[in-house]
Amino acid sequence: MSIISCRELSKRYGKVEALRSVSFGVEGGELFGVIGPDGAGKSTLFRILTTLLRADSGQATVEGLDVVRDCRAIRSRIGYMPGRFSLYQDLSVEENLHFFAAMFHVTVRENYALVRDIYRQLEPFRARRAGNLSGGMKQKLALCCALIHKPSVLLLDEPTTGVDPVSRRELWEMLARLRQQRITIVVSTPYMDEALRCDRIALMREGAFLKIETPEGIIAQFPQTLWSVQGDPKYRLLKDLRRHEDVIAAYAFGDAHHATVRSERITPLQLEENLKMLGYLNVEVKKIQPTIEDCYMQLTGT
Amino acid sequence: MPSNSHTFYPPAADAQPLSVYTERLTKRFGSFTAVDAITFSVAQGEIFGFLGANGAGKTTAMRMLCGLSKPTSGCAVVAGYDVARYPEKVKQSIGYMSQRFSLYEDLKVWENIRLFAGIYGMGKKVIASKTEQTLAELGFEAERNTLVKALPLGWKQKLAFSVAIFHEPEVVFLDEPTGGVDPATRRKFWELIYQAAERGITVFVTTHYMDEAEYCDRVSIMVDGRIEVLDTPKALRQRLNAPSMDVVFQRTVEKP
């Protein structure tokens, strides 16, 4: 049985349809990612699952409990880390942790094992006010506070937004360790490269799920041929690629451009020759595996 | 590895003019040194990526470069003006946009443009003609009278960028301009940056997306108030034997 189950959830704010009939299930012990840009509806979904917001229609259950009827019972079973830093800025690190434990009628001592690995990194700062922590440390403390009542389901809404790449990686490593302890985790992120850390992901846009799959499955289902195209100068190259009759779409991806091509009409070598003729230097064209970003862009028709 | 932060390299005589230039720029808050004697320069028309871990001092350094915060010691010259002596001149010569600094949500698209252009002292006629041009370039003609709050996020960001460079500043500072937008919009936004740089506007940008760091002409990575490395993305990848800027970042920030 799914630990989290949603059927045709919809939510509207005035004219804006924040959720459009979203259905999905999350299995026990799964690390499930909700991937999409700002405004896709991720936070609305999280707020419904955490019983903080009522859907207009549809149903959602967590461990078989209904998010509306059984909201109180659900709250002690879930840990929630909202998108915005939500701890008490004027309490110390230690005080925040004890406060959240007390709210759930537990002690830090009885559940310490669950947060030990993370909290150890915060120990040197335990007397510091939460408001004076660095971004990465704040995230760690928020995660400890979300875990201290030993929830079986953890919901994290954009825990890595605005966080530097090193702290982001640390957070994902912490989530991987929690998953080993059979905690079910639902996490949202706008960073598509993080999708690969999840067991399954939902790609979300404008209130709807475009696809629910394993990251590998989404990449395998990419329907077009994708080439990486390098050459200098880069920006002019991008504009010329878009003008090329055998190129369907081209976008800048880090140090190379990614182009979807009509591969029945041209080979990488031929495109390389075309570009050299146009005067580009350091030209290199090769077939590549799409990234999740390529897949998202393909699915959203851009 | 030698650090760039304490060595001053004067520009060569035939070098391009500099839009940003600092020498041992420092900011202390009490006993805490947020920015520790950083020395670097950015050439006119360059796209410069200013990277670093959270809390490394990027925001403090940017605030000094924008004339919003006085250096404790050292100096910085932006668009030809010393930031400590002529902060108002600096502010007039730069543009600024951040992820969270949005436009006025309850004003229409054209009203936002007029407001910001007016604040920068542009004349009515210039504003009117340039507004047409900007709306056409963005493909926003039909949205002229739309309230900004009704625009999708990606459009807001494009508009915010156009407003930030509307008065043709010498330098535009972009503080995490693309946070949270979808991948296609993020890339289209970067094409606006390329266009601005082609027109000679210097772009000084912070980001947490390491693929965006690859689009910059040069990048610096700040660690604990200092500029730990500064070079082209390609040279940094080669020097640290790293396949991507993501790995360059990890290795630079995590050095013991």
What do you see in this structure?
- The complex is a heterodimer of chains A (302) and B (256).
- In chain A, 32% of the residues lie in helices and 29% in strands.
- Chain A is built from ten helices and 14 strands.
- Chain A has a six-stranded mixed β-sheet with strand order 6-7-8-3-9-10, with helices on both faces. In chain A, strands 2-1-4-5 form a four-stranded antiparallel β-sheet.
- The two termini of chain A are 37 Å apart.
- With 256 residues, chain B is α/β, with parallel strands linked by helices.
- Chain B contains nine helices and ten strands.
- In chain B, helix 3 packs across helix 4.
- Chain B is globular, with a radius of gyration of 18 Å.
- The relative contact order of chain B is 0.17.
- Classes of the chains: A alpha/beta (302), B alpha/beta (256).
Shape of chain A: globular
Please give the share of residues in helix of chain A.
25-40%
Mean of residue pLDDT values of chain B: 90
CATH architecture of the domain at 46-59 and 91-253 in chain B: 3-Layer(aba) Sandwich
Biggest sheet strand order of chain B reads 6-7-8-3-9-10
Strand content of chain B: 25-35%
Low-confidence stretches of chain B: 1-12
Q: Please report the number of helical segments of chain A.
A: 10
**C-alpha Rg of chain B (nearest Å):** 18 Å
Under CATH at level 1, the class of the largest domain in chain A stands as Alpha Beta
Q: What is the oligomeric state here?
A: heterodimer
Mean pLDDT of chain A: 94
Indicate the structural class of chain B: alpha/beta
CATH superfamily of the largest domain in chain A: P-loop containing nucleotide triphosphate hydrolases
Distance between the termini of chain B: 13 Å
Largest sheet of chain A: 6 strands, mixed
